[in-house]
Amino acid sequence: MADQRPPEDAHDKTRPLPDLQEPELQRLRGGKAFPPGFDAHAIARRSRRRRRILRGGSLGLLTAVLLLVAFDPSVTADYSASVGQIERITLPNGTRVQLDSGAAISWSQTDAESRVRLHGGVALFETAGRVERAFVVEVGDLEVRPVGTVFAVAAEGFGWSALVESGQVRVSLPDSGASSLIGPGEAASVAGTGGSLSSAAIDAERTLAWRNGVLDFKNAPLTEVVRTLDRYRPGRILLLREDAARKRFDGVLSLDDIDGALQIVAESSGLDLLATWPLLVVLR
């Protein structure tokens, strides 16, 4: 009987794969034959999949970084204060600034003016007696131009405001042309983009008590007290009481111990501290 040999199998894994045109396989081969049993096609598919995953991961990381910059302006701000801290700085034009917890500002200067942009939080400014350039503080749509004064600006939620402790400031909305000159014990505010400019009397000493390490409340809504304390503690403080809006609080709280301050608020308001975790406090 004639010697029968099995026909040559085009997929015989003991033989080198033909010179494949697929770039991924060419790269994997490096010009050499694959060893027996080596499934180059599967390896190529896994390699392509791995590169797609890496590209997707890089895109996700880039998106996360962009979102961080968008929602946390302190990442790119020139000066900022960490949560629970008050920072004192001096600007290049000699203006002394106190940044409240979580506040962030940026500085720019041209031949005509010096400009500060408040990104968030509260900042207290004490201008130098004589400056070479016009000085402007910008917060939202609001522009504040001081004249040898001590004043503060705030960006909270969707509103912006400025208050004066001494001297005068010109507060304006450049887009609408609205303008107001305010002096000691006065504040001007705007509710947000497209809002109108309004002014009112204010207790500047009590409002700016944070610069001395305390918070001074007088007949303040409990929701406002909790919201203010929330600025000085990392994480969140949740108030789970439907009748909280009707409760009021009087007292001076130390910023050195926010959890202790919360305990005082809870006891005086008939609330329970359900949880006190590093990043979460629950009041009810």
Task: Walk me through this protein's architecture.
- By secondary structure, this protein is an alpha+beta fold.
- The protein folds into 3 domains: 23-71, no CATH class; 79-206, Jelly Rolls, CATH 2.60.120; 213-283, Phage tail protein beta-alpha-beta fold (3-Layer(bab) Sandwich), CATH 3.55.50.
- Helix 1 packs across helix 2 (40-71).
- Helices cover 23% and strands 38% of the residues.
Q: Count structural domains.
A: 3
Q: Helix and strand string, N-terminal first?
A: HHEEEEEEEEEEEHEHEEHEE
Number of helices: 5
Mean pLDDT: 83
Question: Class by helix and strand content?
Answer: alpha+beta
Q: DSSP strand (E) fraction? A: 35-45%
The low-pLDDT segments are: 8-21, 64-69
- CATH class bucket of the largest domain: Mainly Beta
Instruction: Give the biggest sheet.
Output: 11 strands, mixed
Radius of gyration: 32 Å
Overall 3D form: globular
Strands, total number:
16
CATH architecture identity of the largest domain? Sandwich
CATH topology title of the largest domain: Jelly Rolls
Characteristics:
284 residues, alpha+beta, Jelly Rolls, Phage tail protein beta-alpha-beta fold, 3 domains, three-stranded mixed β-sheet, 16 strands, globular
In terms of topology, how is this protein built?
Layout: H1 23-29, H2 40-71, E1 79-80, E2 87-90, E3 96-99, E4 104-109, E5 113-126, E6 134-139, E7 142-156, E8 159-173, E9 178-182, E10 186-190, E11 197-201, H3 204-207, E12 214-221, H4 222-230, E13 236-239, E14 248-254, H5 258-269, E15 273-277, E16 280-283
Parallel strand pairs: 5-6, 13-16
Antiparallel strand pairs: 1-4, 2-3, 3-5, 4-5, 5-7, 6-7, 7-8, 8-9, 8-10, 10-11, 12-14, 15-16
